[in-house]
Amino acid sequence: MKKALQRISVAVGVMATSVSLAFAQITIGIGTQQGQVNGGALLQLLSLAQEIMSRLVPFAVTLAVLAFFWFLIKFIFKSGDATGRADSLKGMGFSILALFVMVSIWGIIGLLGSIVGVGQGGNIPIPGVPRPN
Known about the structure:
- By secondary structure, the protein is mainly alpha-helical.
- The chain has one domain (2-27, 38-116).
- The protein has helices at 2-17, 19-24, 40-77, 82-116.
- Helix 1 (2-17) packs parallel to helix 4.
- It is elongated, with a radius of gyration of 21 Å.
């Protein structure tokens, strides 16, 4: 049980870390002028990854909330069994920890984005050498 909870918490932590990819939403503009590479396939791949992440993050939060309530119900029904109550308390603790990590990383990324000036859907200007027309 302990190893399963550790694996779940690691998986949820990895998903929470990927929140930075889902909410940063940095669009890279790659031109198609002479001498430049067409990055259409790369942009489509990044768009697909962003879409997958934006759907996985709410799923991970929902999974952590459901795990918390599952362990809460187990805790209530195992009121006579000391071992069952201890396992349920550990499960509730891990699920609360996973929720805390996901929400705090989400907040830190939002704070850093507002400090740097890159909000949701914002663009970062790519530096380049100006060319005369």
